[in-house]
Structures are given as structure tokens and as C-alpha cells.
Amino acid sequence: MTAGQPWGSLAALVVFVLILAPPGYWLLRRLDGAPPRARDLGLALGLGFAAVVPLFWLERILGAPVLVLPAAVLSSLALRREWPQWLDVSLPSLLAIPGLLGLLAAWVNADDVRWVHGAATVRQGFEMADRAFYALVAQEVQRDPWLPLQNPFYSGVTFAYSVFPPLAGLLLRVYGGLDLLSVFQVHLAVVSFVFIGLAVDRLLLEWGITSLAPRALTSLLCVLGGDLSFLFPPEGVRGAERAAPFLAFVSFSAESLYYNPWMIALPLVAVALVLGTRWLREGGRGRLLLAAWMLSALWQAKVFACLPLLLGAFAAGALRRDRRLALLGAAAAGLAIPWAVLSTSGGDPLSPQPLRYGLLYPVAQSLAVHPSWEALRAWTAPESGAPARWAAIGLATLLVLLGGLGVRVVGAAVLARRVRADTSGAWSWLGASLLLALALGLLVVGDPLPLNGAQFLMLPQLLLWATTGPWLAAAFTGPPLRRLAAAILLLASFASPAIYLARKAWPERFTRAGAVDLMRFTIPPESVAAARWLAARPGPGADLVADWRGRADAAGGQPAPYLAVLSERRLLAHGEDFAVSHALGAERRRMVAEVFDTTDASRAESLLDALGADWLWVDTSRPLRYESPRLPVRIRSGGVELREFVPAPVP
Q1: Residues 7, 10, 12, 18: is their CA dihedral positive or negative?
Q2: Which of 158, 201, 232, 428 is 20 to 30 A from 74 in CA distance terms?
Q3: Is the pLDDT of residue 554 over 60?
Q4: What angle do CA 284, 290, 294 make, to 5 degrees?
Q5: What is the tens place of the pLDDT at every residue in 443-478?
Q6: Residues 460 and 312 sit within 8 Å (Cβ to Cβ)
């Protein structure tokens, strides 16, 4: 692990708890009547997240730290006489599994970026690219928090994005004094895994599961439980062995928690279910407000979790003719409207919509990466007769769902029994939400990245461990054959994520030669120094790094996002069309390439004016082929030149 990261993760965790827990406990006390208790720490963190992160956003808009710390301090003072109740004998057992999960997150991601003698070597993989992007969005919020945000890969173009995950990272940076790249590289995952352990444990307690063994096992399964892709290895997935199993059954559940905002969304979902269950069981306006607010906050954390839970409340309420379920759905939908408006504002008007209808795309994707299923794939083609074709499509869909859920099918059966015996409506709500999530995952695709729609499938893939875990724990107390079956199922549950973790920890041992997983690109110390120099020059006229290209790009690397993070600047263009139309992305790349390839200084100046560029990042091994008085060299650092693009003189 990079020096300083263990202490940085601990500092991030302390900041997260001390800032979010007091307001969360205060809300529980005021609206639910519950005094501060250690077992409610997960609830307090969830409510604190939903309340404090918007305050932090407003604080960034105001430009002064006048909201977050006062909220934490005033909440602590308001509860000062009740804090002694927080400490009880269950505290060590409560924190043991969350602490273990936090150590796991630190270990898994620690080697993604190595710092050696001022140079950074970065592991290849979409996980690392995702985290770099979230860091860029966090910098964008810090730079200009007003919505719509600018696209950090295409400066000047606004885009729609959920801002709570970037704000969470920025909160740790501002109040923990941490480097933003390290926050998203390691620290945020550590904090989130601890949060997952606490929130899942509290959900099980709410369901009446008090024994330590099922609670501990379920928390472990939520971050270490996977699909059956290890039994059906995919092929032909662009040489990325670590990512290939994700596509076997389009199952991104446990593995995605190591890099994706689902690491924040999962504990928020658990907290929302606890608060919703309390409202459905006991009533009370305060409980309704707490549950609805948590559900609405999920929109800005992970819309793929928010929508099924909202629609599930309406569907279960209609089927049961349950007034409380209907009120929960209506209140949460009303509170989510402002977040929906904010997150959909802006964007390239010519870019595709983020979601669109696409029938059974995950099934087609899974069939495409399983050569042994070629015969079944052929039967699903339009050339097949209608009865045979639809029978084959139904069989393929069943295979993909069963393969993606794996052992969690047991939890689905447990959930079905709970729904039939449900008296409060809470289990009906959960069942309807998970069915709707499965339906949305099979009917909706992302655009331009089709697999984004499959993120709806991740809600049942993650949440069904909450019913599967207690069943497995109970099976270990049964007859010998049942214990043997439980052990086999448990091994199957851990197999796929274990393979993922092994390939991250020991890539040379578990990855074939030539795979992308073995590759790293290096940002030399001179480039790091140049980026840090640029980051120290804030203010107008210093917003952009113009060159999105570089020698490492040609070797399969993506250094540009990391240079942008280190220099705290946006990019003018990127190698992929992220949240922009292909026409805009291609034109930006063409213009930037021409800036560096042309021999005509006036042509380069006109392009830079059109782009709104402020800085050029020049690799001196490929120097500019022209000189311009508007492009003076401000710093030379090894093989890097930083040239400022100054405004044209006024006639």
C-alpha cells in the first residue's frame, strides 16, 4: 500500500462518522423518537448522508464552510445528555465485520496507483478509469458547484450527472485534508465498506435477525458474493480477464462495489428499507418523512436503485390496497422531483438519451460471450420459427437470470415466502421493487453505453444476499447433509469475486500473458511535477489542459484523466464519447489533433479560440510544428512543456 494510505483511510472514516452521525442521530431522535444507540450507527450515517451532503453542496455554492460543521456540532450538543447510551457491550461485535470489510477495500485497491520517486504507475482497467472520472467530477463541483456541471472530458459542454458520490469524496477531501485522487482510489471505498457492514447489520436487526452469525455472514456476502460466471467462463472480451466474468451473466454485483457508486448506494438502500419498514409497521409523520427523504436521496446516489424502490412502493400499494405504501411512494416521488430536475439539466443537446428501450440486451450480451451456447443463440435469431424462437429466448433469459443470481435464488424463494406471510407491507414492497428492477434491467439499455441499463439488475443481485445469508447461516446448524449443501453453496457464492480479487492482487499469477490486466502506464515525475505546478495556479484563464493524446494512449493507457486530476483542469477532448454525441466527440478530437499536427500558427490559434483553450500540454518528443506569440512556454519539466494560450490583443 502506498505510504500514508492506511492513515488516510482512517482519517476519512473518522471524518465521515463525526460529520454525518450526529445530524443523523438528531433526525432519528426528533422524527422517530429513537435515542442514540450504537446499533443505529448505520441508520445515523445514512440519514446524515442524505441531510449533510446537500448542505455541503450548498456550502460549496456559498463559498464558505458555514453549514456542515455547525450542523454536526449543534446536533452533538442537542444530544449531549443521551450520548452515554451509545456505548454498550455490543460495540466490539458491531464494529468487527465492518472493520474487516474496510480493510478488504483498502487491500483490494491499494496497488491501483503506485507512487515511486515522484512518478505514478497506474493499473489498467475500467475500474480505475471510473474512479478517475469521479475525481474529475468532484473537482468540477469544487470549481463551480452550480448546475449544470461542465463535462470534465469535454470542457464547455454541460452534462447530466448524479452529484452525491462526487460530493461524498469532496467532503472527505475538504474536511479530512486528503488528496482527491487517493480519496477515490482507496479511501471512499474503505468508508463505504464500513458503511455497508453497519447498514446491512441494522437491516437484519430490523427484520428480527439478532444472532451474530447470520448478520456477520450476510454482511460478508454483500461485498464478497457473486454469480456463477466461474462455471461458464466467457471468451473474447477484449483481453480484460478481470472484467470478463462481469459480462458472463451481466452480473456486476459484488465486484462493482470496489469502484462504482453502488458502494454508496447499497448502504443507503438498506437504511431506506429500515426506515420504510418502520413507517409501514408503526406509522407516524416523522417516520414517513425520514423514509421518503432517504428514498429521494437515492436519486442523486444511484438512480438505478431509486426508481425500482419508488415504483415498487406504488405497485405493492396498488396490489395490497395499502394506504401507507401509496403515501410512501407519493412522498418519496415528490421529494425526488427536485433532484430529478437538477440531475437532468444540461447536456449536449445532440447526445443520446441516457436510457432507452432495448429488449433483452443483457441476454444477447451473455449469449455473445459464451461460445458453447452458439446453438441456443442461433435459435433466438429471427430466422427461427416464431414458437421455437420465443422458447429459445425464454430459455436464454432464464439461464442469464439464474446464472446472474446464482445462490441468491435461494434468497428469492425466502423472499417469496415472506411476501406471502407479509402483514406490514414491507416485504411486498421489497418483492415488488426487485421484480421491477429485474424487468427494467431486461427492458432498458443505456445510451451510448448499452450495459448501463443492466445496472437495474444489480439491485436484486445485491439485496437478495440479505435473505440468502440468514438462510445459509441457519443451514449450518441443520443435519449433516444440509450443512454440506450450505458449504457448497457458500463456496459457489464466493468464487466469482474471489477470482476477481485474486487477479487484482496477483495479476501475474492468475492472468494470461498479454491481457490488459497486466498492463500499467507510467506518468513520469516530470509530468507529475508539471501537473502540480498547474494545479497551483487557480483562477480564470487556467481551466483547461488541451492535449488529450500521449505516448501511453497508443499503448492502451489513459493518462489524460489522471493528468487532469493532478492538474485540477478539465480536458478539451477525450478518447471516448462520454456523455456527448459521436459527432461532437469526433469533431473535438479532430480539432485538438490538428492543433498539434498543423504547421500553420494562425490556424492553430483559430482552433484554440474556437475550443476555448487556456493551456497546452505538449510532449516535447512531439513538439509543436509552429511558434506563436500567443503560446509562450510557462514551464519546462523534463519531456513536458506547458504553454499558456493568452487572449488575442485588442485592436
Answers
A1: negative
A2: 201
A3: no
A4: 145
A5: 998 876 778 888 999 999 999 999 999 999 999 998
A6: no
Q: Which of the listed ranges 4-8, 488-492, 554-558, 564-568 does the model predict with the highest average pLDDT?
A: 488-492
d(CA 219, CA 203): 10
DSSP string computed for 178-232 = --HHHIIIIIHHHHHHHHHHHHHHHHHHHTT---HHHHHHHHHHHHH---SGGGS
Taking residue 25's Cβ as centre, other Cβ atoms within 10 Å add up to 28
Helices (H), 80-163: 91-109, 126-143
- Name the strand (E) or helix (H) holding 157: strand 154-159
For residue 261, the 8-state DSSP code is: T
Handedness of CA 303, 306, 310, 312 (dihedral sign): positive
- pLDDT tens readout for residues 325-383: 999 999 999 999 988 887 776 655 555 567 888 889 999 889 888 888 888 888 888 77
- pLDDT category at 1 given cuts 50, 70, 90 is very low
Q: How confident is the model at residue 553, as a pLDDT?
A: 38
Question: Which tens digits make up the pLDDT trace of 474-528?
Answer: 999 989 999 999 999 999 999 999 988 988 888 888 888 777 788 888 888 888 9
C-alpha separations of 489 from 464, 483, 484, 492, 525 in Å: 14, 10, 9, 5, 49
Long-range contacts of 252-256 (CB under 8 A, 24+ apart): 252/454, 252/455, 252/457, 252/458, 252/461, 253/225, 253/226, 253/227, 253/458, 253/461, 253/462, 254/222, 254/223, 254/224, 254/225, 254/226, 254/462, 254/496, 254/497, 255/226, 255/496, 255/497, 255/500, 256/458
Q: What is the per-residue burial (b if ≥16 Cβ within 10 Å, else e) of 95-126?
A: bebbebbbebbbebbbbbbebeeeebebbbbe
Instruction: Read off the pLDDT of each residue in 122-147 and give the average, rounded to a whole number.
Output: 86
Cα torsion angle, 517, 521, 525, 529, sign? negative
Say which residues have a Cβ less than 8 Å from residue 506's Cβ, sequence separation at least 6: none
pLDDT higher than threshold 80 for residue 300: yes
Give every CB contact of residue 579 below 8 A, 6+ residues apart in sequence: 151, 153, 154, 159, 160, 161, 347, 348, 351
Instruction: Quote the CA–CA distance of 260 and 121 in Å, as a whole number.
Output: 21
Assigned C-alpha cell, 47? 440519514
| DSSP letters for 442-475 | HHEEESSSGGGGGGGGHHHHHHTHHHHHHHHHHH
Residue 167 amino acid letter = L
Is residue 604 predicted with pLDDT exceeding 70? yes
Is residue 329 classed exposed, middle or buried when 0-12, 13-18 and 19+ CB atoms within 10 A define those classes?
buried
Q: Which three cell numbers stand for residue 454?
A: 443492466
* pLDDT on residue 621: 82
- Angle ∠(546,549,552) on CA atoms, nearest 5: 140
Please name the residues in contact with 522: beta carbons below 8 A apart, sequence gap of 6 or more: 119, 120, 121, 122, 552
Radius of gyration of the chain (CA): 25
Mean pLDDT over residues 570-592, rounded? 85
